[in-house]
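Exercise: predict the fold of this chain.
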Amino acid sequence: MYKEIVTEIIETGLHSADEVEVALLTSESVSIEMKRSVPAHAGESFGSGLIIRVIDSGRIGSSGTSTIADWRVCLDSALSSAHLAEPVPWGGLPEPVPLKGDSLSFDDAVKTDPEIALSFCNRLLEGASAFPDAEVVGGGAGLSLGSVLLANSKGIWYEEDHTSVSASLETIADQSTGFEYDRSYSLDIDPFEIGRRAAELASTSRNGVPIETGTYDILLSPIAFSGLCATLLQSAVNGRSVHMGRSFLAEKLGEVIGADHLSVIDDPFYPGGLGSCRFDAEGVPTRKNIIIEDGILKSFVYDLKTAYRFGKESTGNAAHGGVAGGVSIGLHNMIFTAETMKEPGEGRCISINDVIGAHTANPLTGDFSVEVQNAFIMEDGICQHPVRKAMIAGNIFEMLGRITGMGPTPRRVGSVIVPPVRINGMRLIG
């Protein structure tokens, strides 16, 4: 039924526009939310969305709806927005090419079964019981199935399925809190360890000691590094931001911007990556993009509209911004590698599990000042004392040059894959 609708949308749209693109998104999910230590709310949802984009004489219009039966209204809205748009340089939608393999982030063992979600919640609680002085505040687990059908008037008809499994737990011990989570496309997450780690963070963060303001070596967990650095770097290599002068890296292509052993790759084929896919939101086949190699900025990322406008080539990084949004630029799996340190916490450093306020970092300059959370004074890889309260300040792009090494084991944090990161000479404010 849906396939017939997509075909009819394209045929109808071609009466009024040069090109038509249709994305049909469907999903189903089940989740259980815990209130304190009780699985209190179970939810089940089914959704679908339709995104229509039309191009007529270089004028691009788009519209979306969550009611597929209203596709005619959605198409009319897309056509109307195209008529009002300013024409832009446009080289056409892509034509179909053979795609290798099957969906890259799909596991047929994942089912939207509330019993699986409940078993995950019970394992979260079992793990947390290893630290009985930590009280469970909340958490939960969920499983979802999704599919993408992308078609256009050039003959593209691509389909891909996705799955997602997640679990999280939040705890408190006195005034100290702990939070841990994991998300995967398969059932390989460990709810017991998530619960244990959340309780451990709350329990061991109590009775913190003050720290003097000064310069320290720090060890950022994958969560802290991703929240503080990776998110801003994603924005900085966005081709649209670069050419509009909204990126610190705009004039630095080919220059050294990080430690000489630091590399960053956008890899849509990374095994187990949540962003793994064979085609982007415009039907351009995805590819590995080397962002930073040996500390040197190698490339930016583009969608079709930005590439055509600035005389570049799409890098397969178009992304849908939801049913209500159009096409934006995003990364798939952002993989950080550097010199491997068997024990990145060797000597003396400050271990930081998370930061608060990373969203306040200046996206143009990279300057930031954030509060650290679950931080510890570490000696030779062993946490000695929790830090009562501190802030870390500096510049994210300068941080890239201060990376001395990374731990041996990477972790998925959303679409970022990174081990613990050791950085020298950072300013902490006690």
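Check your answer against the key: The chain has a mean pLDDT of 95.
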